[in-house]
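Trying the structure run again after the queue cleared.
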Amino acid sequence: MNHGVAMTRVNVPHGEQPPSPKSTIGAADDVAASPSDRVAAEADSLGDLGQGYPANHFAWRIVLDRARAIGAASLVEVGVGRGNGVAHVLDAGLTFAGLDRDPEAVALTQHELTELGADPARVIRASVEDPGVSDLLPDAGGADVLMALGIMPHAADQRLAVESMARLVRPGGEMFIEFRNSLFSLVTFNRLTRDFIVDDLFGDVPASTRQRVADFIEPRLEMAKPPEGSSALTSHYANPLAIPEWFTSIGFPEVTVHPFHFHAAMPLLEGADPREFRDASLALEHDTSGWRGLFLCSVFLARVVRPQD
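Done. Tokens:
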């Protein structure tokens, strides 16, 4: 990891800092006929060990609680994936629009909108980094709230992506943008821990000292994890303590951080008792300490307000 900036770009496999999985409801899981039924079914299955950790259930709760608080009427999702957010948004009484560069994702989300009685034309195929995307999306520039999960870790130009997102919401509108949490590396006790400590924490000290630090900590870490070659993706990580400064530097001074996807212990210990690990992690999603999530969460949402024109 690079040091001295809010965002770090590292060529690493996902390992134990994966992008949070999509929620478990969607077009392919036709479990209920209404948005509220689908959201309720998801809530009932949070502890199901046969499914991936339901991180995005909590992300949507963060976003939609805020949407209700500000009286929002509309939401646009950048990166709709399998359309799992549609039920959450419609259940909250908001209109939904979205985009994704993957044609299969667009088709799945359009199907989900149709199944739930909404207009499938409100989802388009596009990349948020494409010039002019704000001219293509229905009601672009007027949305009250924006959600972007899994976009920033792989964006080629993060500033361009943020500026493009801002054009999709109204002045004063709020964007919730997911980032991978570099501070979580202090909990993983693997190769990423070494990278964060050596490159970020001690990035400005002499190279010889940094090497001594590396030599000291490497025998105490699971250096084979994440395994080399497990992913070809280039991942971006962000420090939640520094991310407000980065947003301010590009013209977005109003920023708050909202961690989610808690881990009850080092991820490498999950296999010792998956049931206990899941239950304890779910309980931590309700943590009110204000600081624990900065270290125990693998991802966080940056709530970013588009400045008034």
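The first helix runs from residue 35 to 44. Worth checking whether this holds up in the mutant runs.
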